[in-house]
């Protein structure tokens, strides 16, 4: 029972992150499952089975509020499903000793991306770079494969690419990615069930993650109004980097001695603290700038008033 409660909290926390940033549900929850000793393939399978419910609920909500481009969902979601199925069967064929460092390396890369992206730029914004339609298919394949093999990655791969097109509002990008992720979750789950024959998957764990995620969905809407996404992104990115760095240093690939691990951890902690401090400072500066601009717009004594003729 204690484990199920912890897993429900993991699902709740991961959904809070995803609801605030538009990404990182799979990365966060898979990282935490690996940290408690879960088999890599089973961890990703558990997360994707839970995501069938969470992405369905999220996609339905986005669709209701007009945040989804149905044409893009089909063009990126179907290739994404194919990539996810391939990634799931590939991960299922690897031994645990090989799969764990492979997954941790992918998660570490995604963690660095989240940390740097939100520390330096805050929430992703649109740009004027054009995006060709033929780019959606390979993007979906890559995102789906990364999502299945790394236990997460659909949002970190797909969201920035669609935002960079400059042709979709950020809310529609997030809604479209969240909705198409349902197809990815279904395909990845099918691949894991086929490749693992259901072995190593605890469906009580799946249910616990699902319940936690569904409970967190409305809370995330409140959280995003209270906690700056830029700061939250830096905090979460640091957790992912630290946790997966520890897994890699402990793996047979590296087997780093204690004398090496301590300096690495110190550097990560210092860099993480600096990133969070930078994000907090940048958020405060931005908030002051917006307040000053608002005051200027509404201040009746401002020099910007229209002169009386």
UniProtKB/TrEMBL annotation:
The UniProt record lists the keyword ATP-binding: no
Primary localisation category: membrane
Pfam short name (any one): TauE
UniProt KW Transmembrane keyword: yes
Membrane topology type: Multi-pass membrane protein
Disordered as annotated region, ranges: 290-309
Designated name of the protein: Probable membrane transporter protein
Organismal lineage: Bacteria, Bacillati, Actinomycetota, Actinomycetes, Micrococcales
